[in-house]
Design goal:
The chain has 216 residues and is α+β, with helices and mostly antiparallel strands. It is built from four helices and twelve strands.
Length: 216
């Protein structure tokens, strides 16, 4: 009996320590690649501290995020994935009610960036990832699918968990490309927490503004 128990224990000890399947390995690699290009954004508003997420889209320090995170706030602070803090200035706001803003930080080194994808190619049911700072938990990764595409309101609906603090963060496809910027959640408890209905602005709308002269 003792010999049998030892054999069973030995079989467990010989199992690989990190036996991830192919899909898990893909997500782990993608997170490792993309997370350095995702930042937290804090702005001091008259009502208190507003917190959100941003995406570095240019290695010189240009950051894409949601305008409602900033509002008319001052003392905008960007925190990198490694904990380094930088003061940010507003570079440009995009149109009426587009809820998109560009920030700029001055960093002494070239920054990691995240690639913009093509939101016209997305399909309901495809897998998506979101990286953000919900409730201040920096670098949080969640996974889900595209639940619905609202063409009339130009919004992507997803069940990937999005919570307060995730606004301005990326909705990513399996290639690590941004297909949307997370904007809001729908919830009967006054949008305090997530119940699986989140919305993102399609990235192609934002790319139209980025293509305008003197944007970047």
């Amino acid at each position: 009996m003792k010999k049998l128990i030892l054999m069973i224990l030995a079989s467990f000890l010989t199992l690989p320590a990190h036996a991830f399947d192919r899909e898990e390995q893909s997500v782990i690699s993608l997170y490792k690649k993309i997370n350095p290009a995702i930042v937290s954004v804090d702005a001091q508003l008259s009502s208190g501290l507003s917190c959100g997420t941003g995406c570095i889209i240019d290695k010189s320090g240009i950051i894409l995020t949601s305008a409602h995170v900033i509002e008319e706030g001052k003392n905008i602070v960007v925190t990198m994935f490694n904990g380094q803090n930088y003061n940010a200035k507003i570079l440009r706001r995009f149109g009426d009610n587009k809820d998109i803003i560009l920030l700029k930080i001055n960093c002494p080194y070239s920054l990691k960036t995240v690639k913009l994808g093509d939101s016209e190619k997305i399909k309901v049911g495809q897998k998506v990832l979101a990286i953000g700072n919900p409730f201040g938990f920096n670098g949080t990764l969640t996974q889900g699918i595209v639940s619905r595409i609202d063409y009339a309101k130009n919004r992507i609906q997803t069940d990937a968990a999005i919570n307060p603090g995730s606004s301005g963060g990326p909705l990513l496809n399996k290639h690590g490309e941004i297909i949307g910027i997370n904007q809001a959640i729908f919830n009967p408890d006054n949008n305090i927490s997530n119940i699986g209905i989140g919305f993102a602005i399609p990235i192609n709308i934002i790319k139209e503004y980025l293509s305008q002269k003197n944007t970047i």
